[in-house]
């Protein structure tokens, strides 16, 4: 009886998380920008709220392979805390994962992703981390282009303008 009650509670918690995560994502997508803190952070830790060793290994592998953030063990020493919930409970037909990135300094939620699965939460954990990587990489590309554009404008305005009939050559 205790195990079935636990499974029911976990199914309810996972269902709630899966329902709320898209709302957070929709709000973030409305703003259509990745928070600057997500781009500037240097370190991250993974906080496995619920999941297996495979789920944790998938999360660590994706972050390490990406190389954007240095993975640290203590969340108090990290710029970002990445919360992971992964659950497979065939007896109650629940399978899914939620990944939420939080600024460790002020607890602001910077990014959330979730996916349902058939049987392998570790696979969707990897997919969610790849989605995070795509969004951050895309935002960095936009930020770099904006900086280059701003730099070009600054360079152009710093150069002296030529007047007709005057030479810019100095002996």
Give an overview of the whole structure.
By secondary structure, this protein is of the alpha/beta class. Helices cover 51% and strands 22% of the residues. Strands 2-1-3-4-5 form a five-stranded mixed beta sheet, sandwiched between helices. Helix 3 packs parallel to helix 4. The termini are far apart. Mean pLDDT is 80; it is low at 26-31 and 160-171.
First-last Cα distance:
94 Å
Q: Strands of the biggest beta sheet: in what spatial order?
A: 2-1-3-4-5
Low-confidence parts lasting 5 or more residues at pLDDT below 50?
26-31, 160-171
Number of helices: 4
Relative helix content: 40-55%
Write the layout of secondary structure elements.
Elements: H1 2-31, H2 36-40, E1 43-50, H3 53-66, E2 70-71, E3 80-89, E4 94-103, E5 109-116, H4 121-158
Parallel strand pairs: 1-2, 1-3
Antiparallel strand pairs: 3-4, 4-5
Helix pairs in contact: 3-4
What keywords describe this structure?
171 residues; alpha/beta; five-stranded mixed beta sheet; 4 helices; 22% strand; elongated; disordered C terminus
Structure summary:
The chain has 171 residues and is an alpha/beta fold.
